[in-house]
From TrEMBL:
Keyword set, alphabetical order: NAD, Oxidoreductase
Organism: Streptomyces pharetrae CZA14
Annotated family: Belongs to the D-isomer specific 2-hydroxyacid dehydrogenase family.
UniProt cross-references to InterPro entries, sorted A to Z: D-isomer_2_OHA_DH_cat_dom, D-isomer_DH_CS, D-isomer_DH_CS1, D-isomer_DH_NAD-bd, D-LDH-like, NAD(P)-bd_dom_sf
Pfam families named among the record's database cross-references: 2-Hacid_dh, 2-Hacid_dh_C
Ranges where the D-isomer specific 2-hydroxyacid dehydrogenase NAD-binding domain occurs: 110-296
Signal sequence extent: none
D-isomer specific 2-hydroxyacid dehydrogenase catalytic domain mapped to chain residues: 3-327
Protein name: Hydroxyacid dehydrogenase
Amino acid sequence: MEILVFGVQADEKPLIEAAFEGHHEARCLDVFLNEDTAPIAGGYEIVSTSVNADLGGRVLEILAAGGTRMIAQRSTGFNNIDLRTAERLGMTIARVSYYSPYAVAEFAWALAMAVNRRVVRASTRTRDFDFRLDGLMGRDMHGRTAGVLGTGKIGEAFARIAHGFGMRLLGWDIAENPACVQLGMTYVPKEQLLAESDLVTLHVPLMPQTRHLIDAEALKSMKDDAILVNSSRGGLIDTAALVAELREGRFTGVGLDVYEAEAGLFFLDKSLEAVSDDTLARLVTFPNVLVTSHQAYYTREAVGQIVETTLRNVLDYRAGRRSENVLVPRS
């Protein structure tokens, strides 16, 4: 059987083809699934999608009309999927419930250290043979406070690195992680965490309850010289409110690997086009802000695990098996 795989990056393609070899043929496309591209899937029972795919009700209707019965999403998050419509249409939806937490945690730290030590600005200067240190002063992380919002596997991995720096650990989640407590983490209300942390990092899923978890009020409660990092989902931060605070000269640095309106932008080359997103255009002009294009998960280890799990989800569907990765079971 041939599986149609949407949104495949160049580095990802050989991993997908190697994993599926001997099982099913994988037809890899670099286009992302949305209402315009959904008709391509006509005649394919199984399609695989990337994290930025549009799997809203209309797209699911088009896929179902074309014969698609199973969607294997290559990500953990599923806020982009209309699960109720999928269930109504009798479609099976599966995701990747787990992959290397170190990939995301390590990248979150890369963002934190890059904005703290002004790495991007320094690199730009030295390319112009400007070797001055003016404006490049950072600060030690040792002895400071790291606030971790979401202490699952990724949050725990981040906390372990923070512990290695010798930082005080504050955590916020619906349940305490014993491993984090063992590291010395103290669980506190979100308001206290934001007020006391020198570094705030987000590792919670995007749901209606967490949308704009960091809103205008939350941003105002943070230290003026805090560092804010988001490598989870863009919708966790009210970006317009963040821009307003940055205009006031607040925060030592902000590292964003995700953006709430990234669909249709991230993973694509827009360098020759006019930027129509005024908020993003303003955001990237701040010298203390670093924006990357949703690459925190993008390591050979993590992508390899994502691909292997996606294959297993397809094989389970074909065999009539159900695993913990299934969001909407086979009807």
